[in-house]
């Protein structure tokens, strides 16, 4: 089965980059018994000239996982994949774009290698996870099942 969760809350620090816009950040979980695939993905837009967002695409962090202690997922990073959207301009500095995405994404989602993820709460729409490991001990993320509810920060 496939589950899609949008990232609702995280521990991001620092000012945003005005040239990069992350429109969506979500996590895809594909299960197969006690093993599976976990993909953290962002949809991005880039304005290299600082005003016109003419490059866009997705950035995926592809991982595999296994569950070994109750609800603890042990994650292994497999690959980082960047794809341009149809009709997008090719960024002149792809490495610089990846660096901006790295700074804009939660660190535990950009590089989850060796991370242990404990699900501390789950229901039909909401999932709260706690990270364990030397790099992200105690970090928590709140994820909402994609399409289950609408969050409007302007209200």
Kindly describe this structure.
By secondary structure, the protein is mainly β. The chain contains two helices and eight strands. The chain has helices at 94-104, 107-110; strands at residues 2-9, 20-32, 35-46, 55-69, 72-84, 116-122, 126-132, 140-145. It has an eight-stranded antiparallel β-barrel with strand order 1-2-3-4-5-6-7-8. A hairpin with a 3-residue loop joins strand 6 and strand 7 (126-132). The N and C termini lie far apart (34 Å).
Layout of strands and helices, then pairs:
Layout: E1 2-9, E2 20-32, E3 35-46, E4 55-69, E5 72-84, H1 94-104, H2 107-110, E6 116-122, E7 126-132, E8 140-145
Antiparallel strand pairs: 1-2, 1-8, 2-3, 3-4, 4-5, 5-6, 6-7, 7-8
Spatial arrangement of strands, main beta sheet: 1-2-3-4-5-6-7-8
Beta strand %: over 45%
Arithmetic mean pLDDT: 87
Order of helices and strands: EEEEEHHEEE
Short description:
This protein is mainly beta. The protein has two helices and eight strands; from the N terminus they run βββββααβββ. Strand 6 and strand 7 (126-132) form a beta hairpin.
């Amino acid at each position: 089965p496939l589950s899609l969760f949008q990232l609702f809350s995280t521990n991001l620090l620092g000012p945003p980059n005005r040239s990069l816009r992350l429109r969506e950040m979500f996590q895809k979980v594909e299960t197969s018994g006690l093993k599976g695939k976990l993909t953290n993905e962002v949809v991005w837009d880039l304005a290299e000239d600082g005003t016109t967002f003419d490059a866009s695409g997705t950035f995926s962090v592809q991982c595999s996982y296994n569950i070994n202690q109750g609800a603890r997922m042990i994650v292994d990073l497999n690959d980082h994949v960047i794809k341009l959207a149809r009709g997008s301009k090719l960024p002149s500095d792809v490495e610089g774009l990846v660096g901006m995405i790295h700074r804009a994404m939660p660190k535990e989602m950009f590089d989850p290698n060796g991370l242990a993820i404990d699900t501390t709460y789950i229901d039909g729409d909401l999932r709260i996870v706690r990270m364990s490991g030397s790099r992200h001990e105690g970090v928590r993320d709140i994820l909402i099942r994609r399409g289950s509810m609408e969050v409007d920060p302007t209200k």
